[in-house]
Amino acid sequence: MSRNVPSLVLAERVRAGEMPAMARLISRAEIGAPEVRGALAKIYQLAGRAHVIGITGVPGSGKSTLVAKLAEKLRAKGDKVGIVAIDPSSPYSGGAILGDRIRMTDMAADPGVYIRSMATRGATGGMARAALDAVDILDVAGFDTVILETVGVGQDEVEIVRASHTTIVVSAPGLGDEIQAIKAGILEIADIHVVSKCDRSDANRTLTDLKQMLMLGLKHHPKGAWISPVIGTSSLSGAGLDDLMNAIDKHRDIAFNSEEGRARRLAIAQFRLHKTAENLLMERLNRAAAEEGAPLAARLASRAGDPYSLANELLETMPVKEHRHEQNARSKIA
Amino acid sequence: MNKMLDPKSLDRLESEVADWEKNEVAAFLKKQAERKDQFFTIGDIPLKRTYTAADIADTPVEDIGLPGRYPFTRGPYPTMYRSRNWTMRQIAGFGTGEDTNRRFKYLIAQGQTGLSTDFDMPTLMGYDSDHPMSDGEVGREGVAVDTLADMEALFDGIDLENISVSMTINPSAWILLAMYVALAKKRGLDLNKLSGTIQADILKEYMAQKEYCYPIGPSVRIVRDCITFCAENMKRYNPINLSGYHISEAGSSPLHEVAFTLANCIVYVEEVLKTGMDVDKFAPRLAFFFVSQGDFFEEVAKFRAVRRCYAKIMKERFGAKNPESMRLRFHCQTAAATLTKPQYQINVVRTAMQALSAVLGGCQSLHTNGYDEAFAIPTEDAMRMALRTQQIISDEINVTSVVDPLGGSYLVESLTNEYEKKIFEILGYVDDNGGTIKLIQEGWFQKQIADFAYETALRKQNGEKPVIGVNKFVDDGEQPGIETHPYDPSTAKRQIARLNRVRAERDEAKVQALLDQLVETAKDESKNLMPVTIELAENGASMGDIIEKLKGLWGTYRETPVF
């Protein structure tokens, strides 16, 4: 495959289920060059069939192991499973921490499983957009279930996982830092709670405290609405995994066949709209800053102006429409 | 062993039941289906359509037995309420000793036959009324007791040799017992004539109610000291009230309530036996406290089963010889957690039903909740109504003329058997997994309780468990106003003034010397803490003085929340 294959052509090959095309299109989506946008527009039109499961939890909660077990179960019932894992990237290496993925090598040879790590690279601005683009690409490539895995720290990671049909929040015993989790608002987003490592005796406390906390909210729960179950699992013994699969099936039904699900999809669309607009805006702002920012910064440094007025001046230099260069690039593809 | 039914009769009965299912039942079901696919007790035990002698055919006749005879399934005494009604023991406590004393006297005037004392949070947790942690809580949800002077005010003019007094207190129970003894001695009473109970069941605190001061080890030793002291010095006094009530109110199933309580009982008995005391010397004074929940027949069966299990444990596991050591006596309280704020008047009806199952289950004393207890501690009016409920059961509806009137009911006997089986399964699990204390530390009991509580909350939420007025037959209209018990804002000031007076008047050097002696006694596990604590109470030491001093030696217990 030549390096210069247009993205639209890649999109066609993705539709035919070609793995290498899929990988390349995801890479391009990740970089976010304007050339890929037309292809992603097409992908978006075709997507919407796969069940997207978001999984999050603090580091060390056993998410990745759970994802691997879940993928096995989904494969066993014949689903093709795509996994998009958002790794917190090291600022030193600039790459994703791929150690987690090694646990999934059992499935590496299975063509029904595709695993893709995406690095957050410190700047998480475009991450949500790229990750959701990747989910769409897998969807169009014929994956029945796409698992979106993020570390439940940082607003962005939480938001990404929330943009799935079914959100699973993993808690684990013995971490001591779950207090952080509630601060980040991660428990509230769960459609399904999993307490992992239930072979350990201190999992009792985690399950007890979680249930007692959730109970407080039950009174105000709208009648008939989905109630997030709490499922204890053990990747060692396999306990609880069937319960988890059942809960996922039930929630998939809600996600695709209910008013609650429709409302959820609308919220996801709003989120994507907002994130994509934010992304475009940031690009324009960065360009404006590169072109016009230096003299403004110099004035600010010498206290010849104040931050608010100068920032407003910078914003005024921003083009109202998308950059001409991009528009050219897009019209060429079209 | 005699069985309830011989094989031939059993065969005949079983074929008749099968025939009935095939004909009458099947024909009826064709016309009208049943309301649900499966029926369960509140405690999740599956229920059959009806019960027959076949369901209890294998029960040894001796297991059902007779009232007042081993294994006491049918009651601890042979004549039960034909001789003496249960003790009507409404709990009371608020404000200072004087405030609660007035309520006690009111209740006695209304026909109450025993006293039961509720303490405020600072007293329950072992803080003096002037401790920063006590701010805003003094006398709010119970009576405040800091020193012997408060105890004197609390029982002023009440004849302690002729009325039994129960005190609901746990980590600081031995101090209250010491104050009670000091008061009795001051009045020149015979300790062996005092009857009553301190709760002092610390293990269920770690499991459910979470009122504790010290780590588990020293806490259990305190309980042991109470039991052995009473066995030697207070022949009619119950040094412990093994309580399932709080386990249930924390959300457990009725089965776990009784099974976990027996698991705790086993720990205490083992601790006392280690001191070399004979089981028959102290076991007759072990007392129990259970809830009467909402499932009428299940509750009756629960009470009968726990009596049978306890008898077998004491005889077979601990080798008791005296039948009184095997005879479980219990106080009962209706289930506060079933009471509702909406349509609060109907709480009277709930409480009446629960009280009836306690009586049919053979309780020795009973507290019926006030209709206003979902709002606050009860008013006098609510307490009078609750007491009258008991009086109607004892005097008007003639359920007290026959001992164990539900004995022999196919359903109740069958549930009793089921409960016994399941209780011993749980106790077996606890034994096999390192014992009660280890499983408390691992949070196993706590998780079982939380699981059932969560299930129940889900069932209420989705309407599977009806709660009238809350998720069924809801009244949309304005609810009539309710007058709740007022909190007197001068309580803390009055209470702290007395505490300061006691501190100013006492011999400080003597108190300090006794506190040092207390620490020395505590260091030697073979010694009993009671005598020096009684001396401390007599010399004006406060509860806070004693608790804080021992925290220096033993430290505290903390359960940091996971979330």
Tell me what the structure shows:
The complex is a heterodimer of chains A (334) and B (563). Chain A is an alpha/beta fold and 334 residues long. Chain A folds into 3 domains: 1-46, no CATH class; 47-257, P-loop containing nucleotide triphosphate hydrolases (Rossmann fold, 3-Layer(aba) Sandwich); 275-333, no CATH class. Chain A is 52% helix and 12% strand. Chain A has helices at 7-15, 19-31, 37-46, 63-76, 99-102, 127-140, 155-162, 178-183, 203-218, 241-257, 259-301, 307-316, 324-333, and strands at 51-57, 81-87, 113-119, 145-151, 166-171, 192-195, 230-232. Chain A has a 7-stranded parallel beta sheet with strand order 3-2-4-1-5-6-7, sandwiched between helices. Chain A is globular, with a radius of gyration of 22 Å. The two termini of chain A are 21 Å apart. Mean pLDDT of chain A is 83; it is low at 90-100 and 324-334. With 563 residues, chain B is an alpha/beta fold. Chain B has a domain at 61-398 and 406-461: Alpha-Beta Barrel (TIM Barrel). Chain B contains 21 helices and 12 strands. In chain B, the strands form 3 sheets. Chain B has a 5-stranded parallel beta sheet with strand order 3-12-11-10-9. In chain B, strands 4-5-6-7-8 form a 5-stranded parallel beta sheet, with helices on one face. In chain B, β1 (39-40) and β2 form a beta hairpin. In chain B, α3 (97-109) packs parallel to α5 and α12 crosses α15 (410-432).
